[in-house]
Write a structure and sequence with these properties.
The complex is a heterodimer of chains A (294) and B (789). Chain A has 12 helices and 14 strands. Chain A has 3 domains: 46 residues, Uridine Diphospho-n-acetylenolpyruvylglucosamine Reductase, domain 2 (2-Layer Sandwich), CATH 3.30.43; 111 residues, 2-Layer Sandwich (Uridine Diphospho-n-acetylenolpyruvylglucosamine Reductase, domain 3); 111 residues, Enolase-like, domain 1 (2-Layer Sandwich), CATH 3.30.390.50. Chain A is globular, with a radius of gyration of 19 Å. In chain A, strands 4-5-10-6-7 form a 5-stranded antiparallel beta sheet. In chain A, strands 11-12-13-14 form a 4-stranded antiparallel beta sheet. In chain A, strands 1-3-2 form a 3-stranded parallel beta sheet, with helices on one face. In chain B, strands 3-5-1-12-9-10-11 form a 7-stranded mixed beta sheet, with helices on both faces. A 5-stranded mixed beta sheet of chain B has the order 7-15-14-13-8, with helices on both faces. In chain B, helix 9 packs parallel to helix 10 and helix 15 packs across helix 17. The radius of gyration of chain B is 28 Å and the shape is globular. Chain B starts with 16 loop residues before the first helix and ends with a helix. Classes of the chains: A alpha+beta (294), B alpha+beta (789). At the A-B interface, helix 12 of A face helix 3 and helix 20 of B.
């Protein structure tokens, strides 16, 4: 449980970081906050020969910037910054809630948004909320930059579209028109320092307060190999005027879509059941925030 | 019996607080010696195997490696906790018995090299079928783990007090319940660490994060073949123990052997994973109890069967299996009790003593049964307990003597403080619950672990020759529980001086004998010895003053460090003048008013020479004549009542404990803040054991969660409001009436929480910990079968 020896290099620009990654080959790892990487290195789960730090690449950029309907989240923003960001809280409250659910205050002071996504854990607390806003991530390498929907980003536990020589340089959300409300709920055994047994993030966009659902997103954590969109639940909600029955049915639909496993934290059966509860509760809260009355 | 104390019963800061909060205090891992090497252990990755071959060539040839010890290189002396069950060796020779068993020890110039070398020791294993739970271990034909435990039974107990068969006929309401739990860790902050050094005369010093320097000294002497006086064990500051650090470990012994092999000091520090592998925490229990009462609530009988999964070695297990039965005989009058207990070995890390020892999970079931029985006869849970509580002077059916017992006072204190009657009157609200429970615990084991009529501790109190200073020299183990502050307080109180006159040196076998920090013994036992030693010092000062003045010695006493004289202070001027003459050039010397302790104690030294007082404590003969009667005996018993208030999410099974109100009878609080601290600690630890803590294994006996991410102790955000009420009963066998608070406070927490969950949901929780999934399953079961009433 001691940190093994490794070479450490600090990049001064994104381009330099990409170059360092390309040079170092498969033995390199990126470090920002290090809250995931260092623990994995201590446990011997990863043994990079070279660690490339990108922690200085933020410059003076804000954690969250808004340009019209476009919201840009800096990948080097810490969870603590996102948790307390008024712009984010106002525009996409469930993303701030996801950031607040990560680890403990000490972890949140170091852990970054980019790290939470790039580690590609099914339990990453910011992933379901960002999925619920159709977020896109920008990936940069020495050969150029491209943008990927977050929904296509996660490919398996710990696996993503991010190539070894690529850097995640931006997280972007196009805020929808209409009246939106969101929620994130995480189920665990204790109030902090917890890996979710299951989590659910939802976003409802109504054509007007009290109106029909223009867009519904239901995203789940810790119940599949990846942070998962529950599309059948979303389809069920689309175009409907929400009520209690519909919300319950959506929760049940999401539970059917979940693909949980048994592990030391909970059984698959319990997780599946909890998806129905969490999605129903999250939808109820999101609907209220979107101005949907009953 | 109330008397006015000068220092005792106050809220003085701990004597070690400043050093600990500033980082000045040194723990074992902080220690360095010239030329020091670093030790590391190689552990078996498999749960049960024959060692076919070992090759340490690669490890030995790694640059920086100074020694590699294998099973064949170390003394083949068996050790353990109970001499009748010595079943451990320093390193496995031909067989490993759990995934974690130590197979090699390495010393190298730095920790990384030592760890790397440990990883290079090649062991060829021929795997044997492993036994991973107690019921499998007891099956006919099960693989046998130790030759000395046929049928894998390490210890068994069969006791009957009164006549259970006859009592059963008289009982009007009887319940039978089964309750199981999982292995739990002490989760102390500081991992075990040991630093061993031989001096050039061949004398060994081991600095170790232990709770029991004396037992470690004896084990080292036995295994290394040295007389005890050539082995010194010293505790630096220790960051918690809770029981798992209360015995000598392979790591400590291997570290000494590495020091002997290399001629250099060697330090070995456990990782958290190794803390889990070494284990010695809470056993995994299966309790089955049948309890009968009369319709008026009178407790009639208890028939109890327990199976303890103890892991690969005996450790404290014999005591554990006895405690699991014997400590149910109080704090209620229980005339008939039958107990059958089996402590079984399995291929998992060894379990041992942990706060509350074997009694905690037994208590958790028994107190749930009392609630269920109370409900069946329509009686309030408090009333049922009040109807049966023992009081001072009562003796249990298994001959435990309640020399003081404020059980009724504890019950009354929590009942009124938490507003129980009002809250119960409001009736049940789904998802909100309130529950209560009691418990009691020994205030020091009545007998040492090895058979002996030895005193359990000795203490010397020594006056500084210059006057004013008082040094307490003790072997007591300060593990964070506050025993140094307790010793300073009792000594100051006995002498009539302020706390700042006293310094305490402890935790060193060179200073004094002390059995250590276990069984909540230190305040009563070492406190009694300190009081005796301080009183002897006071007598010597009194006699010096009496000779000089011609007044009777009994006329002299100190109040807050000032001489309190009956009659006229004739001789004061002469003593003061001499004191001042010796200190020409000093400032701030006492000039007027009563003689100070500083002046008087200097005078006493000048008159009589070195003044030291000796104290020791040996319990009176305790307990009955039956087999195992010794376990559970104590010079005194502390007791507790607690009320837990919870909120249960009926759809997810999540439990939030909102408040725990606890009352504890500690006889007489030595330091009220520390008593409350111990109560808060017990309640927090109980909360974790009740709701979240469990050591989990895979199908091959490897621990799945040997870290604090996945072994879940409650966080600050999970902590409920904790209310600690102190009940002072005055214990005649304790120093100034004091007795334990270290462990008794954990007894009621688990059942109070479980009773509150049942109040909130109607569901009986029959397995610990009460994770959301288990609670939800219990609620679901209720839906299918109706309330368990």
């Amino acid at each position: 449980m001691r940190l093994p020896m490794f070479e450490y290099a600090e990049a001064k620009s994104a381009a330099e970081a990409c170059g360092m990654l390309a040079d170092a080959g498969p033995d390199a790892a990126l470090i920002a906050g290090g809250t995931d990487l260092l623990v994995r290195m201590k446990r011997g789960l990863e043994r990079p020969a070279r660690v490339v730090s990108i922690r200085r690449l933020r410059g003076g950029l804000p954690a969250v910037a808004r340009d019209g309907a476009r919201l840009a989240l800096h990948p080097l923003a810490t969870m603590a910054e996102l948790a307390a960001d008024p712009l984010l809280e106002h525009a996409c409250g469930n993303v701030a809630a996801g950031a607040r659910a990560v680890g403990s205050p000490l972890v949140r002071n170091l852990a970054t948004l980019g790290g939470n996504l790039a580690s590609a854990r099914p339990c990453a607390d910011t992933a379901p909320p960002l999925l619920s806003w159709d977020a896109r991530v920008r990936l940069q390498s020495a050969s150029g930059e491209h943008s990927v929907p977050l929904d296509d980003f996660f490919t398996g536990p710990g696996a993503s579209a991010l190539r070894r020589d690529e850097l995640l340089t931006a997280v972007e959300i196009e805020l929808p028109a209409g009246s939106s409300g969101s929620a994130f709920l995480k189920l665990g055994q204790r109030a902090a320092l917890e890996i979710a047994i299951a989590s659910a993030a939802v976003r409802l966009t109504l054509d007007r307060p009290g109106g029909t659902i223009l867009a519904a997103r239901v995203a789940l954590g810790s119940v599949a190999p990846v942070p998962l969109r529950a599309r059948a639940a979303e389809d069920l909600l689309l175009g409907r005027v929400p009520n209690e029955d519909l919300i319950r049915e959506a929760g049940e639909a999401a539970a059917r879509e979940a693909r949980p496993i048994d592990d030391l934290r909970a059984s698959a059966a319990y997780r599946r059941e909890m998806v129905a509860v969490l999605v129903r509760r999250a939808l109820t809260a999101a609907l209220e925030r979107a101005g949907g009355g009953r | 019996m109330k008397r006015d104390f000068q220092v005792l019963g106050g809220r003085a800061p701990r004597v070690d607080a400043g050093d600990k909060v500033t980082g000045q205090a040194l723990y074992a891992a902080d220690l360095k010696r010239p030329g020091m090497l670093f030790g590391a252990l190689a552990h078996s990755p498999v749960a049960h195997a024959r060692i076919v071959g070992v090759n340490a060539d690669r490890a030995r040839s790694l640059p920086g490696v100074k020694a590699v010890l294998l099973g064949a290189d170390v003394p083949q002396v068996r050790f353990g906790v109970s001499p009748a069950r010595y079943d451990e060796t320093v390193l496995a020779l031909d067989r490993v018995r759990y995934a974690g068993d130590e197979v090699a020890a390495v010393a190298a110039v730095d920790p990384d090299t030592a760890l790397a070398a440990a990883g290079l020791v090649e062991v060829e294993y021929e795997e044997l079928p492993a036994v991973l739970d107690a019921s499998a271990a007891l099956l006919p034909g099960a693989p046998q783990i130790h030759d000395m435990y046929p049928g894998n039974i390490c210890a068994e107990v069969h006791q009957e007090f009164g006549d259970v068969a006859q009592a059963r006929a008289q009982a009007e309401v009887v319940r039978r319940d089964v309750f199981t739990s999982k292995m739990q860790s002490g989760a102390f902050l500081e991992p075990q660490c040991a630093l061993a050094e031989f001096d050039h005369a061949g004398r060994l010093t081991l600095w170790s994060a232990t709770q029991t320097p004396h037992y470690v000294q004896r084990t080292l002497a036995m295994v290394l073949g040295l007389p005890e006086h050539r082995v010194r064990v010293v505790m630096p500051r220790v960051g918690g123990g809770f029981g798992p650090k209360a015995s000598a470990s392979s790591m400590e012994i291997a570290t000494c052997l590495l020091a002997r092999a290399t001629g250099k000091p060697v330090k070995t520090l456990f990782s958290r994973e190794q803390v889990f592998l070494h284990g010695r925490g809470r056993h995994q229990f299966r309790h089955e109890m049948e309890t009968g009462i009369r319709r008026d609530g009178t407790l009639v009988f208890l028939e109890h069967r327990a199976i303890l999964d103890g892991g690969a070695f005996a450790s404290f297990g014999i005591a554990t299996v006895y405690y699991a039965g014997s400590l149910l005989a109080g704090p209620y009058r229980l005339p008939n009790m039958k107990y059958d207990g089996w402590r079984v070995v399995t291929n998992k890390p060894a379990c041992g003593a942990q706060r509350g020892h074997g009694a905690v999970h037994a208590r958790a079931l028994f107190e749930q049964q009392l609630d269920l029985l109370a409900e069946e006869i329509g009686m309030d849970p408090f009333e049922l307990r009040l109807k049966n509580v023992m009081q001072a002077g009562d003796v249990t059916c298994n001959e435990l003597n309640m020399s003081s017992l404020g059980m009724r006072e504890c019950l009354e204190a929590v009942r009124s403080d938490c507003g129980w009657d009002e809250k119960r009157r409001q009736g049940r609200r789904p998802g909100r619950g309130i529950g209560m429970a009691c418990g009691f615990f020994v205030s020091g084991a009545g007998y040492p672990i090895y058979r002996s009529r030895t005193p359990h501790c000795t203490v010397r109190v020594r006056l500084d020759e210059n006057g004013g200073g008082v040094q307490v020299l003790s072997g007591a183990a300060e593990i964070g529980q506050g025993s140094d502050t307790m010793l300073a307080t009792i000594t100051a109180e006995a002498l009539g001086i302020p706390l700042d006159h006293v310094t305490v040196r402890s935790g060193d076998t060179d200073l004094a004998l002390d059995l250590g920090a276990y069984s909540s013994r230190t305040t009563l036992m070492t406190g009694s010895a300190a009081k005796e030693a301080a009183e002897s010092v006071l007598r010597q000062i009194q006699e010096a003053l009496a000779r000089a003045t011609g007044e009777p010695a009994g006329d002299f006493s100190f109040v807050r460090g000032l001489l309190h004289l009956r009659g006229l202070p004739h001789c004061v001027e002469a003593i003061r003048a001499e004191f001042q003459k010796e200190r020409r050039g000093y400032s701030g010397l006492p000039a007027e008013g009563p003689l100070t302790f500083r002046e008087a104690s200097r005078f006493a030294f000048l008159e009589r020479g070195l003044i030291t007082g000796a104290g020791q404590y040996r319990p009176p003969p305790l307990g009955g004549g039956f087999k195992g009667a010794a376990v559970g005996t104590s010079p005194a018993y502390g007791c507790s009542a607690q009320v837990a208030e919870v909120e249960v999410d009926l759809e997810t099974g999540q439990v939030k404990v909102l408040r725990i109100t606890g009352a504890h009878d500690c006889g007489q609080a030595v330091n009220r803040t520390q008593v409350e601290g111990q109560m808060h600690g017990s309640m927090s630890m109980g909360l974790g054991e009740a709701l979240t803590e469990q050591v989990l294994f895979d199908a091959r006996g490897r621990i799945l969660n040997p870290n604090f991410s996945d072994y879940k102790i409650p966080t600050a955000l999970d902590a409920p409001e904790l209310r600690a009420l102190i009940v002072d009963s005055h214990e005649p066998n304790g120093p100034f009436g004091a007795k334990e608070v270290g462990e008794g406070g954990i007894m009621p927490t688990i059942p109070a929480v479980l009773n509150a969950i049942r109040d909130a949901t109607g569901a009986v929780i029959d397995e610990l910990p009460a994770t959301p999934e288990r609670v939800l399953a219990a609620i679901r079961k209720l839906g299918r079968h109706g309330p368990a009433r």
